[in-house]
Amino acid sequence: MKKIIFTIFISLLAFNFSCAQFGDGGGEVYLNGDLIDAKFQGGGIDKFYDYIIENFDVSTVEKKGQIIFTFNVNELGEVKKIRILRDLGTNSAIELIRVLKKAPKWEPAKRGGKPISIQLKMPLTFN
Questions:
Q1: SS3 of residue 104 by DSSP
Q2: Which helix (H) or strand (E) element contains residue 122?
Q3: How many separate domains does the chain show?
Q4: Is 0.85 topped by the overall pTM?
Q5: DSSP string covering 27-91, please?
Q6: Sign of CA dihedral 50, 43, 105, 74
Q7: Quick check: helix, strand or coil at residue 116?
Q8: pLDDT by residue for the chain (127 residues), tens digit each?
Q9: How far apart are CA 35 and CA 78, in angstroms?
């Protein structure tokens, strides 16, 4: 029985590694280090959190906890394909989508010097 569980675990682990990717989801895995992260207003993800905090109406949050969301920064630096994976109520989800849709453009990620689309997954915690 232990051997079967171990085999399943290793299979799942191998599957997770094979699914790690950046870009447009075309099945490529980039491990050679030539990926340059997207930048928001000259900074990184911390600058984007600052933007969200400045623009998010906290009165829409119905309970304590964490919102988890994903979005793409496309080749033009636009925020697209917004998905709320975990919310704290409908109003907070709608508010977060509003803030993300009006976000200024990012400097897109680059691979080999060319802009690429990437997906980001972020948490937002309310105490």
A1: coil
A2: strand 118-126
A3: 1
A4: no
A5: S----SS-EE--BBTTB-HHHHHHHHHHH--GGG--SSEEEEEEEEE-TTS-EEEEEEEE-SSHH
A6: negative
A7: strand
A8: 434 333 333 333 333 333 333 344 444 455 566 888 999 999 989 999 999 999 999 999 999 999 999 999 999 999 999 999 999 999 999 999 999 999 999 999 999 899 999 999 999 999 8
A9: 18
> Would strands 35-36 and 65-73 be described as parallel, antiparallel, or unpaired?
unpaired
Structure tokens at 24: 């447009």
Residue with tokens 């992260």: 37
Please count the CA atoms within 13 angstroms of the CA of 106 that sit on its side-chain side.
31
Helix/strand/coil for 123? strand
Q: Which amino acid is at 97?
A: I
Q: Which of 35, 125, 41, 27 is nearest to 79 (CA)?
A: 41
Of the candidates 80, 78, 72, 82, the one whose C-alpha atom is nearest the C-alpha of residue 105 is 78
Tokens of 85: 């994976």
Domain containing residue 102: CATH number: 3.30.1150
Phi, then psi, of 50 in degrees rounded to 5: -60, -45
* Domain range for 47: 2-126
- Radius of gyration from C-alpha coordinates of the chain: 18
